[in-house]
Amino acid sequence: MISLRNVTKYYPSRLGNQYIFKNVSFDIPTDRNVAILGANGSGKSTLFRLIAASEYTNEGEISTELSVSWPVALAAGVHPKMTGRENTRFIGRINGVANLSAYEERVLEFSELGAKFDLPVQSYSSGMRPRLAFACSINIDFDVYLIDEVTSVGDTKFRSRAKQALVEKSKEAKVIMVSHDMSEIRLFCESAIIIEKGKLYYYEDLDEGIKKYQSL
Questions:
Q1: What is the pLDDT, as a whole number, of residue 152?
Q2: Are the beta carbons of 173 and 145 closer than 8 angstroms?
Q3: Alpha carbon 13 to chain centroid distance?
Q4: Considering the entire predicted model, what is its pTM?
Q5: Bridge partners of 18?
């Protein structure tokens, strides 16, 4: 379970604080795969960053005893001035990967970056960064994977490989997913959380959650 307790998140602006969440308490189940659904700007990506601790709450806390990936499609944790290989080794170290050389080779093979693996990430195309981030994430054994539109990245071959890798991982781990593709949501997820006006609502029945989302 991932627990939100009295979570408030806002961003300062010239018009005052713009609140995404205000005093939200909610338990995200981790015994099944969950879709996060909501209108554009509702806070889906913000919630992902908060869960991954790549961004912090203004008030309240988020806690879990599980290991959670970063939101891989956002390429969080990938430093633009480091090469793909340097990023891979750094990510491996901070996540406790025992055999860095083997991990590095798995990431290179899955990302299909070839010689560009040794070039700075800032030189990568918009599709290459998420491919590197996805390959780094999927080759670490997390309890929960945060997936944000990642299977829409890259060419048909890579999308197919990414989906298959997620299917395999979901046999032992769980997935929390953001996607606008309902066929993709139905492929991976069993239930849904709707974000509406800063509140979270859980739907154990996925189809019911999708119906609510489509009515927003």
A1: 61
A2: yes
A3: 26
A4: 0.85
A5: 11
16-51 per-position pLDDT tens digit: 999 999 999 999 999 999 999 999 889 998 998 899
Assign 161 a pLDDT band (cuts: 50, 70, 90): confident
Per residue in 2-24, is it b (16+ CB within 10 Å) or e — as a string?
bebeebbbeeeeeeeeeebbbeb
Residues 180-193: tens digit of each pLDDT:
889 889 988 999 99
Nearest partner of 146 among 60, 45, 31, judged by Cα:
45
Give the single-character DSSP code of 211: H
Place of tokens 């961003």: 11
Burial class (CB in 10 A: 0-12, 13-18, 19+), 143: middle
How far is 152 from 188, CA to CA, in rounded Å?
A: 14
CA distance linking residue 134 with residue 147, whole number of Å: 9
